[in-house]
Design brief:
The protein is 66% helix and 0% strand. It contains 15 helices and no strands. Helix 5 packs across helix 10 and helix 12 runs antiparallel to helix 15. The longest helix has 30 residues. The protein is flat and about 70 Å long.
Length: 355
């Protein structure tokens, strides 16, 4: 009997020994790990390795001369980052902090308009008695579903000075109503700002440095972006119980009070993550900028991601892949900080019981 007790005691001590629980967990999870191993290997090859290689490349002088194994790039440490932030890149009209400020302004004004229009249209489509609402929803989604590359080229042609749809439409309006809108505007190349009111000083003179091309880009990107916010807002609105609005009517709350007290709080859990995603998309809106204006005129509509692309295509730079990799990491760091701050302020990823 004593021998059995001692054996059980010895077995129990072995089971509770340090590391035994971990070894048991690893042993029990071998089959699940075998199932996910192929996907882990694929993700490591297509995601982890390229990103790690980019981090290494950002610390070198890698360019077109180093495509062959015989010519290895030299390690330069943080020199690429210093040149980027100190405007030492040999590109005409390059100013990192000017581009960064424009990128922030571009992102803020676009996302604000996207959310405003998206929520407003979603509320209209969610109203009672509206005919053909499904048709409208399908029609509005086309702008977001159309490939941006194709749509951006269409918008570029629409702003053509002689044959563009915008100038032709203004000519028709002038003929029909006797107005005097200009019909030969060079939307994408004119550096003169369209908003210049004598005697009024704008904050930071923002309207005095934004060329006509900015407003062309803004119009195109609004067309691209607001349907996504409409889709998210529509789903959130349909999940709000109608009884809440009925109770608010009984209590005498007007529509504006109902919007503030019911609609906005219940839209927030869906809209905040959508706004974060829209911020990232707009901050990196490469297709819109590159295919409509190319960053012009005089790089006044350049954003950070298009400037990173230019580092590989400027003749004077001979394909500075190391510097372009460093520029991409700078863009990632900026977006990471923006996302963390936004998440901290809004609590977008908190569970319902943590808020």
């Amino acid at each position: 009997m004593a021998t059995i007790t001692e054996a059980q005691s010895t077995l129990g001590s072995r089971e509770t020994a340090p590391g035994s629980a971990l070894r048991k967990a690893i042993k029990d999870s071998r089959i699940p790990w075998l199932f996910i191993l192929p996907s882990v290997l694929v993700m490591a090859f297509v995601t982890v390795y390229p990103q790690a290689y980019q981090v290494w490349m950002s610390g070198t002088n890698y360019d077109e001369r180093h495509f062959t194994p015989q010519n290895s790039p030299d390690i330069v440490g943080i020199d690429n980052f210093v040149q980027i932030l100190s405007n030492e890149i040999p590109i005409s009209n390059y100013d990192f902090f000017r581009i960064f400020a424009f990128n922030i302004f571009w992102t803020f004004i676009n996302v604000f308009i996207h959310v405003t229009i998206g929520v407003a249209v979603a509320m209209l489509l969610n109203s009672h008695g509206l005919l053909f609402r499904r048709f409208y929803r399908a029609l509005f989604v086309l702008a977001w579903a159309t490939p941006q590359y194709i749509a951006a080229l269409v918008w570029r042609n629409a702003f053509n000075q002689r044959f563009g749809a915008i100038n032709l439409a203004l000519a028709e309006i002038n003929q029909e109503f006797g107005t005097g809108f200009p019909t030969d505007t060079r939307w994408l190349v004119t550096e003169t700002p369209p908003i210049d009111i004598p005697g009024i000083e704008w904050p930071l003179d923002i309207f005095e440095i934004l060329p006509m091309a900015f407003y062309a880009l803004l119009l195109a990107n609004i067309w691209f972006g607001w349907p996504f916010m409409m889709i998210v807002a529509t789903g959130a609105l349909q999940s709000i119980p109608k009884e809440l609005y009925e109770a608010a009517d009984v209590d005498g709350a007007n529509p504006w009070r109902q919007f503030r007290a019911i609609t906005v709080p219940l839209l927030r859990p869906a809209m905040v993550p959508a706004i974060m995603l829209g911020t990232i998309w707009t901050f990196n809106a490469f297709n819109v900028i590159f295919f409509i204006t190319g960053g012009g005129p005089s790089r006044k509509t350049e954003i950070l991601v298009t400037q990173s692309y230019n580092l590989l295509n400027e003749t004077a730079l001979s394909g500075r892949y190391g510097m372009a990799a460093a520029f991409s990491l700078v863009v990632f760091a900026i977006l990471f900080v923006i996302t963390i701050v936004n998440n901290y302020i809004t609590g977008a990823t908190e569970a319902y019981y943590e808020s």
